[in-house]
Design brief:
213 residues; alpha+beta; two-stranded antiparallel ribbon; 6 strands; 52% helix
Length: 213
């Protein structure tokens, strides 16, 4: 059961990684494109909308990956989860179900310390962690740019959205690079996102051996 959880979780993280790489390449392509045409402003907007769509998908995947690590605890909620697509409602259900003081998102950690044989000896949690409120707020704001503007409403503030987009991307990269996810049986699933051209890897840990997570 735990092996299948790890495999499915890796699939989610691998998709997040692929979409984040796409955003990075798209923004790099935009910064290198110095050709000025009468369509350049619209082209920049279209590229930004594409990046917003990818980031919104990443936020969904980050939240939905938590359903994998909490699936044993959510057995009674299968009917609700099969028909629900509202990220806010899913987040609320995860928070209510989680036995870890309402926390369900991945726990960000510093790069684990290994001995000469590669055995992990120490893992330290980071002070700043992903907050579900921040993810849900960003999810809503990203949706604003993906909808055509009603002429009776104020236009979206693109510079502010671009800044928010960059901030959320950086937070996610830093938070997910090394992280642990509590499992229903009390163990921890340690995940390494690794380099852009490397595979995501996971391993199981006994929390008693790593009290500082």
């Amino acid at each position: 059961m735990v092996a299948s959880i790890g495999s499915e979780y890796i699939q989610f993280m691998s998709e997040i990684k692929a979409r984040m790489n796409f955003i990075r390449l798209e923004f790099a392509a935009r910064s290198e494109d110095v050709t000025i045409t009468k369509y350049s402003e619209m082209d920049a907007l279209l590229r930004f909308e594409g990046a917003c769509l990818q980031l919104r998908k990443i936020l969904e995947l980050t939240m939905l990956a938590c359903l994998v690590t909490h699936q044993e605890l959510l057995q009674k909620e299968q009917k609700f989860l099969r028909k629900e697509n509202d990220l806010r409602k899913i987040a609320k259900k995860l928070s209510e179900t989680s036995p870890f003081k309402g926390r369900y998102l991945p726990i960000s950690v510093h790069k684990p310390v290994e001995d000469k044989t590669g055995v992990i000896k120490q893992i330290l949690g980071k002070e700043k962690q992903l907050a579900s409120e921040d993810l849900i707020s960003a999810y809503g704001k990203l949706g604003d740019i993906l909808h055509s503007r009603n002429p009776n409403q104020n236009p979206a503030q693109i510079p502010e959205l671009q800044e928010m987009h960059g901030t959320i991307c950086l937070k996610l990269i830093q938070a997910l690079q090394y992280h642990v996810s509590p499992l229903h049986d009390g163990r921890l699933l340690l995940t390494f996102m690794n380099g852009s051209d490397e595979a995501v890897t996971c391993s199981l840990l006994n929390p008693k051996e790593f009290p500082n997570v």
